[in-house]
Amino acid sequence: MRGAERALVIILRAIAVAAALAIVPVFMPHAWMDACHRGLGLGPLPERPVIVYLTRSLSALYVFHAGVLWVAAADVRRYAGLITYLAAAFVGFGVVTVWIDVHAQLPWFWILAEGPFGIVLGAAMFLLVRRICRAEPKDHRT
Fold it and tell me: Per-residue DSSP letters for 34-96?
């Protein structure tokens, strides 16, 4: 495995591991979520049906996303098209997330850590997958 491939695999797996940790809030008691929310200086977390649904389903979606990233990391040449899409989606999602975070009046550290980080990761993924695809012809598997 060459340098660009290794770097892309590391990025994809690191994101997958981080995203898989979202399994915890899928099942954690509301009191724990509330404590985290208060700890971030955001006040009490309402225990309303839409809040419960959004916090848990978004966390579950992150876990689902982790699986996709892990599979893509298993063969970055084979899944180059998917990784290119994911890279573009990370950039787009990062931009939208910055807008959402600003609109939601989240703390500055949250805004800077979330959206811009996704944009940088997406750009890195895109550049690495392009380098890999240009370096050698694709392996044609059946």
Answer: HHHHHHTT-------HHHHHHHHHHHHHHHHHHHHHHHHHH-TTTTHHHHHHHHHHHHHHHHH
